[in-house]
């Protein structure tokens, strides 16, 4: 079976329409439909069912899709490893990271590494913590920059640094002229949080609990910069990392609880990384 056909199958199985997949593959839609039917004939059963204008996997399709994903990932990994053996400085490092690290830490470590390995390339993905764990366990990322130890038996994690968290308040807030604050003083405030599944959400709830209250949630988001913007607009307060660019929202030092989070590097336990990914991991750990 042609690997290209399996890649098309995976795209459609992942939710892409036949039209979208055909356009990306530069095929006509009938040609792609025939290719998918050939896959079904080869495995001996129907893999898709029509649901309006889309195709949905049958139970057999779900089972086949799981195996196809593993086959393609293993093949791609093998190609990477061979290429890096032939030319160790010209490979690709699949790296996933927290959204909040994309504006400062990730550019720094990549720039420094490329100073030594200028032909190195990176395949970058951004997620919350749960998505980052999935990237490692699925093998789609070699390395992950995240906050806190995932505490998953199949993942190794090393702390790189400790990042402070400050209470961001609106510019016209009653606390805006302060430099420091006890988090307990914010017990009656409306909090703006990341959605459940993000480490900063759990850290905020834990710190508020240590200060003696549960945060009253007014808004939820998926990006720290969005939260900072909502705070600036006067919609609430938030525990956030210090801004990396000028912000009109005051960020107050929290004094009564340990307002900070660990930033670290993670990789799959026992998995042999390709040479370039190993070099990048060592480069980060030696910083």
TrEMBL record:
<keyword id="KW-0238">DNA-binding</keyword>
<dbReference type="InterPro" id="IPR036388">
    <property type="entry name" value="WH-like_DNA-bd_sf"/>
</dbReference>
<protein>
    <submittedName>
        <fullName>DNA-binding transcriptional LysR family regulator</fullName>
    </submittedName>
</protein>
<keyword id="KW-0805">Transcription regulation</keyword>
<dbReference type="GO" id="GO:0032993">
    <property type="term" value="C:protein-DNA complex"/>
</dbReference>
<dbReference type="InterPro" id="IPR005119">
    <property type="entry name" value="LysR_subst-bd"/>
</dbReference>
<dbReference type="GO" id="GO:0003677">
    <property type="term" value="F:DNA binding"/>
</dbReference>
<dbReference type="InterPro" id="IPR036390">
    <property type="entry name" value="WH_DNA-bd_sf"/>
</dbReference>
<dbReference type="GO" id="GO:0003700">
    <property type="term" value="F:DNA-binding transcription factor activity"/>
</dbReference>
<feature type="domain" description="HTH lysR-type">
    <location>
        <begin position="1"/>
        <end position="58"/>
    </location>
</feature>
<dbReference type="Pfam" id="PF00126">
    <property type="entry name" value="HTH_1"/>
</dbReference>
<comment type="similarity">
    <text>Belongs to the LysR transcriptional regulatory family.</text>
</comment>
<dbReference type="InterPro" id="IPR000847">
    <property type="entry name" value="LysR_HTH_N"/>
</dbReference>
<dbReference type="Pfam" id="PF03466">
    <property type="entry name" value="LysR_substrate"/>
</dbReference>
<keyword id="KW-0804">Transcription</keyword>
